[in-house]
Amino acid sequence: MSDVILKLEDVSYRYADGTNALNGCSLKIRRAARSAVLGANGAGKTTMFLHLNGILRPTSGQVLCEETPLDYSRSGLRTLRSRVGMVFQNPDSQLFSASVREDVSFGPMNLGLAERIVRTRVEEALQAVGMTAVADKPVHNLSYGQKKRVCIAGVLAMQPEIIVLDEPMAGLDAAMQEELTVILQKLHAAGMTIVIATHDLDFAYAWADETIVMEAGRLLAHGNPVEILRKEDVRQTLGAAPLVAEITSSLSLLGIDLRDKGYLPRSKQELLTVLSKQARQGG
Amino acid sequence: MLTELSAYSNRWRKVSPVAKGCFSLCGMVAAFASGSPRTALLVALLVAMAAIFGAGIPPLRYLRVAAPALLFLAISCLSLLVSLDFGDTSGASALHPIVSEFPRTAQVCARSLACLAALLFLALTTPLPDIISLLRRCRVPDTLLDLMVLCYRTLFVLSEALHETITAQSARLGYGSFRLSLRSLGGLVANLTVQVWQRSQALHLATLARNNDGALRFLECSYDNSSVSISLAVTAGSLMIVLALLLP
């Protein structure tokens, strides 16, 4: 079985209004990896995501799933969308039933599953995102963060192999971001491939196994976040670098190496741990 | 919003919508079976009591929800009781009460009141998604139900967008004078029209992403002891119909 689960080969996409959202974009999504897609607004992240789920079809180039070009027939798309789940940025654009439980059941019902199985999946999905308590509440009475979680539950209930989330942290407070990170951690531990578009460089640096940086509809850089997000051209494109990366780089210029067992710290917590360890050793 | 609040917070929220639908239907049948205005008023009272004391709807809220319909009913009934006389040669016109129509108007008014109470019973005790699920069981066409689902959800999304836009306009003195208000209102309508179009596109994409290929399918809610509650509702409703038939 190939390590690459989804692949874009020289994909271009032009919207009806003439906007070229993707310009020969080629990239790979590794199986069971946590990939963070970064890029300025208008870099083509959302358009690229819509290709992964077969909602958009490339104007030129091709999208492959496990080395096989996507089948855009009705049955082909049905199979693809049951494997690749997509969570949209605005929850009000995704939730259209007024009942939480009903909305979560929408995807599995479309898969034609038996009612008993759908019921089990809905309960499992709601439990996975910690939304069982609000399952009988109307959607319009939920907070923004709760709506986002219900959106994720709606996709999880379809039991996809890959989950694609478009800016899931946008609009969430720090506590909710932390809760969402825990949910993502659990999904990754369960073997799911997770692809996230985000503007939060600190989150991407700490969380992702792979970073995909896009610029003007094409791939700019792809690889380990510690290598990619410290590059000068990437920094120029994104307009900033992760805070932890900035601190470790600045300190290394002063001759202070913060590597712990050969690895640089990636999160604020890891940085604090290394700093306190070195301070103890120095003292 | 008051209807919405009651539907989600009443004591009978978890009772099967089939049971509540049956009771409401029986209330309407009893209203038409009533031989006199007094009997129809008694049916209205019984159904209202069921909502207030059974489902625990606060009486004041019940009256506030019923008020617009009651006002409409009062105007309709009053208009049935008078005739407009354009006069003879003098050309003067006047309103005259039609005494002979009093009994029939009273009957129509009382029956309408009982039907209103029956409909309010269902609306105040059952959230709309449950009513839609009930209608689905009754084989109402899917297209109609899908429209109901989308309209109901979109109502809240757009209401939020509407309030946000009005707040943003007010913060920049958009409603400072009559002229500015008209201008802002035009902007509001234009903005919402575009939003409706954009949101409908986004919803379409979201349904496609979750493998939808036509009708909106959802899991039906399950209710504890639904057969018991249906039996109780049908029995109570039937007794009400019998009472309406027996009373003069």
3D structure, described in words:
The complex is a heterodimer of chains A (283) and B (248). Chain A contains twelve helices and ten strands. Chain A has 283 residues and is α/β, with parallel strands linked by helices. In chain A, strands 6-7-8-3-9-10 form a six-stranded mixed beta sheet, with helices on both faces. In chain A, strands 2-1-4-5 form a four-stranded antiparallel beta sheet, with helices on one face. In chain A, helix 4 (100-110) crosses helix 5 (115-128) and helix 5 packs across helix 6. The longest helix of chain A is centred in the middle third of the chain and has 16 residues, at 174-189. The mean pLDDT of chain A is 90. Chain B has 248 residues and is mostly helical. Chain B folds into two domains: 2-84 and 95-126 and 223-246, no CATH class; 136-209, no CATH class. Helix content of chain B is 74%, strand content 3%. Chain B has a two-stranded antiparallel ribbon with strand order 1-2. In chain B, helix 4 runs antiparallel to helix 5 (102-125). Chain B is flat and about 60 Å long. The model of chain B has no long low-confidence stretch (mean pLDDT 88). The chains are: A alpha/beta (283), B mainly alpha (248). The A-B interface holds A 50, 53, 55, 74, 77-78, 81-82, 85-86, 88, 90, 92-99, 101-103, 105-111, 115, 118-119, 122, 136-141, 154-155, 158 and B 4, 8, 13, 127-129, 149-150, 152-154, 156-157, 160, 199, 202-203, 205-213, 216-222.
Quick one: biggest sheet of chain B? 2 strands, antiparallel
- CA gyration radius of chain B, whole angstroms: 24 Å
User: What distance lies between the first and last C-alpha atoms of chain B, to the nearest angstrom?
Assistant: 39 Å
What's the number of extended β-strand segments of chain B?
2
Task: Average the pLDDT over all residues of chain B and give the rounded result.
Answer: 88
Strand element count of chain A: 10
CATH structural class of the largest domain in chain A: Alpha Beta
How many separate domains make up the residues of chain A? 2
Q: Record the strand order, biggest sheet of chain A.
A: 6-7-8-3-9-10
Count the helices of chain B. How many? 9
What fold name stands as the CATH topology of the largest domain in chain A?
Rossmann fold
By DSSP (H or I, 4+ residues per run), the number of helices of chain A equals 12
The succession of helices and strands of chain A, N to C, reads: EEEHEEHEHHHHEHEHEEHHHH
Question: Order of strands in the sheet with the most strands of chain B?
Answer: 1-2
**Level of helix content of chain A?**
40-55%
> What fraction of the residues of chain B are assigned to beta strands by DSSP?
under 5%
End-to-end Cα distance of chain A, whole Å, is 51 Å
Give unreliable regions of chain A as ranges: none
Number of domains of chain B: 2
